[in-house]
Amino acid sequence: EALDALDGGRSVLVAAPTGAGKTVVGEYACHRAIGTPGKRCFYTTPIKALSNQKLRDLQERYGEASVGLLTGDRTVNGDAPIVVMTTEVLRNMIYEGRDLSQLHAVVLDEVHYLADRSRGAVWEEVIVQLPPHVAVVSLSATVSNAEEFGAWLDDVRGGCEIIVSEHRPVPLRHHYYVNDRVYPTFATSKQGFQDEDRREAAAQARGGVPNPEVVGLERRSRSTTRVSNKGRHIKGNRLRWPDRPSVAAELRDRGWLPAIVFVFSRAGCDKAVDEMVRAGARLTSPEEEAEIKLICDTLMADIPSSDLAVLRYDRFLHALRDGIAAHHAGMVPAFKEAVEVCFQRGLLKLVYATETLALGINMPARTVVIERLEKWNGEGHVMLTPGQYTQLTGRAGRRGLDTTGTAIVLHQRDIPFRAVAGLVGTRTFPLESSFTPSYNMAVNLLRRHTLPEARDLIEQSFAQFQADRSASSLHSSLAEAEAGLDGYSGQLRCHLGDWSQYWELRHQLTALEKQESKERRRRVKTDVEEGLRSLRPGDVVHVPGLGKHGLAAVVGMSETRAGAPLAEVVTDTRTLMRLGTREVEQAPQVVERVRLPGRGSPRTADYRKQVGMLLRAIAPPEPLDDADGVPLVRKGPSDVVESLRETLREHPCHGCEDRRDHERWQRRADTLHGDATKIRGQIQRRTGDLVRTLDKVLEVLTELGYVDDVPAPTADGLVLAGLYSEVDILVAEAVRDGVFDGLSGPELAAAAAVLVYQPRGDDQPDKVTLPTRALDAVVDDLDDIVDRVHHLERAAGLPATRDLDLGFAGPAYRWAAGRTLEESLGELQLTGGDFVRTIKNLADLVGQLRHVGDAELTSAAEEALDGLRRGIVEA
C-alpha cells in the first residue's frame, strides 16, 4: 500500500511495530530517487548514531558515490542523490532558502520523536514548510492516534495515505520473573480461574488475562508457604528480585540469548556488567572472542592509548570478549559502536542498556528483560508509559531468526502484579505534539513570510491541529450546557417578586460570609503563631484537650520549612509532641515556668518522667470566657452581614412556598453556568495559544531590536536566524555586544561551554575557577545578558530562558588547548560519553559563530574547532 502511494505521488504515514519492515518504505523512496535522473531523496533521523548506521546500510546497497551524509558536524558527499541527515539539518536548509527543486521525497524516520520536549518541534517545522512537490514518508512506531496524526499530515501535505499495522512478524510473549522462576504474564482461561478475576484482569490489562498463579503469589504473600499447581513450593512471604547472574543463567539454559536487559541508570548498566564479570560469566566461544578483539582493535585505532586508559578500555574489552556489554549515553561513541557492531554480528549475548538503545538503532535480540518498570524523569521516579514499554520490548524477536520474541519483567517489589499486567496489556499510547514557537523560529519565519503568513504556518502545526480537535469537542459540550441553561430558564421565576435579584443577594451574602470566615481563621492563625513564637523552654502552657489536664512544658523550639513556629512539649501524661498551628486552635496560655532537667534528652523516658512530676504540682487554670475580658477573636458576624441577612429576609421571594423548588432549579442552572464558563475559557486558550506565544516572542525580539515594526528581521535578526541553540537569544546578544571579541580559540570554546553545558544532577563541582581573566569578564557580561532577557520574558509572559552553567568551562578550555582527556576532565565527574557529546555540542555552536561575526571571531572559532575536533571526539 505504501509503495503504491509513493508511486502515485502521495505522501505516506506508516505506523507499525519494530521489526515489521516499515524501513523498506523509506528505502523505496531512496530507490525511486536513484532511478530518476535529477531527483534526490533525503533520509532524516532523530540522532546522529542512527544517521551513521543508515549511511552504512544505504552505501552497501547503492554504493558510496550515491549516498551522502549531513549531520551538522560531518559532511560526506553532500550532493549525492541520497543524503542521510539529522532532522535539524533539513530544517536549517529550509530556513536558509536552499534550492529543493530536485528534492523528490523526504523520509522522516522515527517521526513519533516529535513528542520530544526539547527537539520535537523540528519535525513539525519541516513537515509544514517543505515545498508541496516533496513527498513525505513518515515512519512511526505504533501509536493509538495514528489516524489523527495521519489526518494532520493529509491536511498540511495535500494528500497522505495512512497505513497502520499492529501485526508483529515475530510474535511477542510476555513473562514475569520471580523467585528464580519465569511465569507467563497472561494465561488462557483454560487454567481455570474465577469469572471475577477474569473480568478484573481484563479491565486492567485491556484484553490480556494476568496469570492467576502469579496473582496468587502476591495475594498469599503473607502466608508461610503455598504449593503452586505445578507442585512447586514457594515461600509466599519471600518474593525475591532475582540476581543478575541467575537471570543470565536462566536465559542461557532456555536458549533465550541474545538478550537486552534494560536498566534505567548508566551506573546501573556498568555495575551489572561488573557483577557478571565477577561471577565469571563466559558466553562466547574462542572464535567469537577473537572476532570481537579484531573489531575493537579496528574501531579504537585512532584513539590515543592514554585516553583509552582513562576510559578503562581494558575492562570494557574484557567484558566484551565474554559476550557481555553495557550500552548507554555515558559511553564514548567508539565504545557504543563496538557494542552495536558486535551485537549485530551475533557475537554479544547480553547487553545492559538504558532506554536510548530502543530508539531506532538496529540491535534486535531474542529476549528483552526489564529490571524496573519505574524510571527517573528528572523530578521523581515514574512508571513507564505503555508506549515506552512497547518501544523497549519492540527489540525482542529477530525477524528471520526467531519464531517468537520474549519480553520479561523482573519481580517489582513495590508494584502489584495486576498493575504490571495492566501496563503490559495496554495498547493506548497517543502521540502528543511538543511544538512551541522559539526566537530562532520566529525570525526565520519572518525572513520568508509576512506576519499573517507566519501565524498561518504556526496554526498549521500538529499542536494546533490537536488543540482545534479538542476545542471541537469542547464546542459540543458548550452547546449542551447552553441548551440546558435555556431549558432551566422557565423554572427560574417566582410569582412573588424578582427571583434573579433575590438570588444575587444570596450570592453576595454567601461571598461575604466566606470572606469574614477566612479573615477570622487568618487572625486566629496569626495569634497562634505569635503565641507559639513567644514561648521559651521551661514555659508551662495550658492547651485544652492536651494530656490529662491540658498542661505541657516547653522543652524546645523549632520551625517548619515554611518558617512557622513549632513548640516541642512534654505533656502531663509524659508524652513528647510538637505543637504548631495545626495542633492548637488558639494561642497557648503560659501559666507557670519550671526548671527543666539539666541532663538527658526529652526523647528518653526518664527525662519525660521528671517533667511529668513537675507538671503534677501545677494546678490547671480556670476556664476563661468573654465575661473575663479575654475574647481573643470576635466570633460573631459583622454588622454588614447582619444587615444583608435582614434585607434577604425582607425580600418577597424569601417567603415563597415554592422557594425550595426555585433554589433546586437555580443550583442546577448555576452548575451548568459554571461549566459553560470553564469550557469557554478552555476554548479560548486552546484555539489561539500558539499564535499568542508567537506574538509574545516577537514582543521580546522587537524590544531587543531583532525585529522591526514591519515586522521583519533586522540585521541583528538575520544573525539570530543563523543561530540554532536552546539559548539562541543569549548567543545572539553576546555576539552583538562583542562579548566574544579578543578571545583565543580555547577561551571561545570555554565561553561556548558556559552557554551549552547542562549538568546532570551529580556532575556539578562544588566550586568553579575560570581558567583566564578574560573568561571572568565574559561570564560577567553573559550574566548581565541573562538578567536583561529574563526581565523582558517576564514582562511578556514567557517562560524564562534557562540559566548558564560554568561547570564545563575549564574542561572545554583545556581540551581545546590540546590537553589530554584526563587533564581536561580534571575534578569534573563526567563520563567519557558525556564529555564527547558536550564537546560536539559546543563545537556545533562554535561552528555557527564562524559565520556571524568579524574576521577576528571567525579566526578564533576556527582555532577552537581545530582543538575541539580531535582524538576521541572524532574517533
Task: Report on the architecture of this protein.
With 875 residues, the protein is of the alpha/beta class. It is built from 31 helices and 24 strands. An eight-stranded mixed sheet has the order 4-3-5-2-6-7-1-8, with helices on both faces. Strands 10-9-19-16-13-15-14 form a seven-stranded mixed sheet, sandwiched between helices. It has a five-stranded antiparallel sheet with strand order 23-22-21-20-24. Strand 9 and strand 10 form a beta hairpin. About 6% of the residues have low confidence.
Radius of gyration: 35 Å
Query: How much β-strand is present in the residues?
Result: 5-15%
The chain-level structural class is alpha/beta
Shape: globular
How many strands, what sense, and barrel or not for the largest sheet?
8 strands, mixed
Distance between the termini: 42 Å
As an assembly, this protein is single chain
Biggest sheet: strand arrangement:
4-3-5-2-6-7-1-8
Helix content: 40-55%
